[in-house]
Amino acid sequence: MDRPPPAHDPAVTDRWHVVAPAGTACATTLLGEPIEVCADGSVRVAGGGAALAACNAHGYVWASFGTPLALFDIAELAEPDRRTLHAASIGVATSAPRAIENFLDMGHFPFVHDGILGAEPFTEVKDYDVALDEAAGEILATRCRFFQPMAAATSSGGADVDYIYRVPHPFCAVLYKSSGLDPSRNDVIALFVQPTGEESVIAHMLLSLLDDNNDDAAIRRFQQTIFAQDKPILESQWPRRLPLDPRAETPIRADKSSIVYRRWLAALGWRYGVIPAGG
Amino acid sequence: MASERQWWPVAASDEVVPRHVFQATLLDRPLAVWRADDGTLNVWEDRCLHRGVRLTLGTNDGAELICRYHGWRYASGTAGCTYIPAHPADAPAQTIHNRIFPVREAFGLVWSAAEAPAGEPSRFDPAATLVLRPMPVAAAPADVAAALGAEIGAAPAGLHLAAADGTAEYFIQAAGAGRSIIRGLAVPEGAALAQLARHNAALSGLRDAIEATAPPVAISTAPALAPAPPGYDPGAPGEAGRATPLRLRVAERTTVADGIVQFRLTPVSGQLPTAQPGAHIDLALPGGITRQYSLLNGPGETAHYAIAVKRDPASRGGSAALHDRVRVGDVLAASRPHNSFPLRRDAVATRFVAGGIGLTPLVAMARALARAGAPFAFHHFVRTEGELAFRKTLAALGPYTPHVGHAPAAAEAALNTVLAAPETPQNLYLCGPPAMLDAARRIAAANGWPEARVHFEYFANEMPATRAGAFTVALARSALTVPVREGETILAALRGAGVPVESSCEQGACGTCVVRVLEGMPLHQDVCLSAAEREDHIATCVSRASSARLVLDL
C-alpha cells in the first residue's frame, strides 16, 4: 500500500518529523524508511546507513531526510510549575492527516468519549473561529467551547470547556484547554504524529498540565483511555488517506477546522498521506 | 460487468439478528446489513458519507442506524439522514444519504446486488430450505466452484451448483477476488442437527483441500468503494423541476377521531424522500388547491407518508376536498418533505403542547424521541373528548395528558400549569390554532422559558397581510436590484427576476422562504420568526419593507 515518498513532496524535504520520545534508543520507521534512533538523539538509516538531520525538542527526537524548516515552538513548556510528560506512543493504522483531523474534531466527543469529553444530549458544536496564518504557516481555531462531563483527570463535574486548537505542522496539533485549577492558564495537550508510512502512524502524545494531585500514571491512563477510544474509529475510516477534494466526503459547519486543514494541505502541495483533489 | 447486475447471497437470514449490524462483503465491497424492527432489511455501503467510518461500528436502534463517530442518524429503507447532533437546530439536507443496494430475502438467505438486477433471486429449488453454515474459503470464486462441482457431481452454472443427487444446492458468494463463501441449502431429511453437522464436515474438508492446492490470490485490503452518490435521487417518482414532483397513491384512509381522517400515502413508483420529524408536504388537491400537511411518520417509516386531516367547517377547500373527494386508490401530486420545524434533541427533556389537529408534527417528534429513549411529556388540548386523535399511540410512547373542553379562562390556567418553567432547561414544542399558540407563547415567556427554547409552528397565519407600498430589494451576493411593486410579494419579484427561492406555505407560517436581511427595515407579516430572528431575517412570501430599500443575503 505504501508508495515511496515522492521526492518533490514538502513532507520529505522541508519538515521535521517526530521519531521517538527523547532518550529512547529504538528501531523505527519514518516515511516508509527503516531508521535507528540512538539514545544520544542521533538518527540514521537502518543497517548503518546515512545520518539524518536530527534535533531534540519538546521532549522528543525529530528527524528529517531533507533540509527542514525551523520547528514550531510551544511557549508554555518553558514554565517551571508545569507537569510535562510523555503520555503514550500508539501505533494506528491510518494516515497522519486522519489522526490530526480527529484531534481537531469536537463533534465526536459525546459519542466516542461518552461520559468523559462529552455526553448526550449535549451534542451541539457551537460556532467557533478558525483561520490559517499564512505567515506563520499554521492554523488556529479559537472560541471553541464544548460541554464536557469530565474534561481532565482533575475534573469533578461537567462544564463548558474552552479550547484553542493550533496546527503548527501538517502532522502536529496542539490543544490549549482552560485549566481546572487556574482558569487564566491553559493545559497543553500535543499530538505529534510520526508517519511510519502513508497509511500507518505512531501517535506520540505530550501533556503539559497544571495538576498537583494526580500521579503520572493516572494522568497517562486518562489520556490513553481517550486515545484507545479513538483508535478503532480511526482504523475503520476509509479511505485511510485524507481526501482533499471537498466533495469526497460530506462536511458540515462543525467541520470548519477540518475544511481549513484540508485546504491548507492542498495549498502546500502536500501529497503524503492524502488523496490530492482530482488525483 | 455481468456480476454487478446479478443477485448474490450476502448473508443467511439468521445472521442478520435484531438490533445488530452484520458486516458482509460482496465483490470486495464492504456492506452493512441490518434489519429494522418492522422487518425491513437494509444493505448499505459500509461507510458513513460524513467521515468514512464503517457503519457496522454503529448502532441499530430498530428504525435507524446511528453512526458511531458523530451520532448521525440514517433512516431504515432510504439511508437518508434524519439528525446531525452537532447542529441540533438544523434539519439535515435531503442530499445527505448513504449508498444503498438492492435487497431481497428468500429461502433463508439475504440477497443483494451492486446494481438493480432485472429479475428476482429465484433460480433454485424451493425444496432445499435447510440453510447450511456458510463456509468461507480463501480462494477465487471460480476455483471454489470448480472444486465444489467435482465433489458433488455438478457442472457449475455460473456460481450456482446443484448436487447430482438432488439433496442440496450451493451458491458461491464472491466476497472478493480471492475470497469466497459457500452458501448451501439442503433438502431437509429428518434430524436437522445431524444433517447440518454432516454437511459442515464435508464442506470443511473441501475448504482444506481447496486452500491446500488453490493458487494463492493476493487478497485486496482496499475495499472497492464508489465515490459518494451525487445529489439526491428519490427514484424519479415524478416530473423533475416541479414543486410537487412526487406521485402518491392513497393506500388507506382511516377515521382516527371525530372529524379527523388519517391518510396513508404510498409512492406510485420509486422511493420516497426521507422525512424528518416536524416535516410537512405540500399536497395538490382536487379543485386545483395546494395545502400543507405535517407528516406523522415515526423513525424508519420510509415506505409511506402518513397525514391526518380534520374537516374544517370553515375550510377554504383543503380539508373538504380530502374528506369528501379523495378515495383509496386516488393519486395525488405532492412536494418533497420540507422541514421548517426541526426537532432539537439537545435538552435533558422535551415538552410538547398541542392544540386540536396541531398535534400532527408533534406526534412524529414524540415517536422519534421515544425511539431514542429521550424523555418527554405530551399535552393535548381539545374541545371534546372525541377529538383526542392518537390517544392510545401517544399514551404508549410516554407521559401523555389530555386536556378536554376548557373554557378560555380554564384553558389559560391549564396552560399556566403545563408551561411551568422546568428546573433544568428543556425544549418546548408548540403547535395549534393561532389563538392558543399566542396564549401559550405569552405564558411560556411569563413563566421564564428562554425564547431560544420555545419552538412553534402555526398551521395557519390568520394575520391579515398588507401588500401596499413599493420598494426595492438589493441582492448582496447576486449584485442585483429587484423592484417590488405594490400588490406583489418579495418572493414573486425575486422569482420574476430569475432568482430561485424555495417556498412552501406562502402564508408566512412555514419559514421555507426565509432569507437573511443585511440592511433596511423589514415590515414583518409572518408568524414563524422569533423576535431574535426578526432582527436579521425576513419571510419573503408575506413580509415587506418599511424602508425604501432592503439588502438581502442572496
Question: Could you tell me the number of beta strands of chain B?
Answer: 34
- Total helix count of chain A? 5
Strand order of the largest sheet of chain A: 7-13-12-11-10-9-8
Q: Label the overall shape of chain A.
A: globular
Radius of gyration of chain A: 18 Å
- Give the oligomeric state: heterodimer
End-to-end separation of chain A: 16 Å
Fraction in helix of chain A: 10-25%
Task: State the total count of DSSP E strands of chain A.
Answer: 15
Helix content of chain B: 10-25%
- Report Rg of chain B: 28 Å
**Number of DSSP helical runs of chain B:** 9
What is the mean predicted local confidence, pLDDT of chain B?
89
Strand content of chain A: 35-45%
> What is the distance, rounded to the nearest whole angstrom, between the alpha carbons of the first and last residues of chain B?
46 Å
Give the DSSP E fraction of chain B (strand runs of 2 or more residues). Answer: 25-35%
The major sheet of chain B is characterized as:
6 strands, antiparallel
Strand pairing plus helix content of chain A: what structural class?
Answer: alpha+beta
Mean pLDDT across the residues of chain A is 91
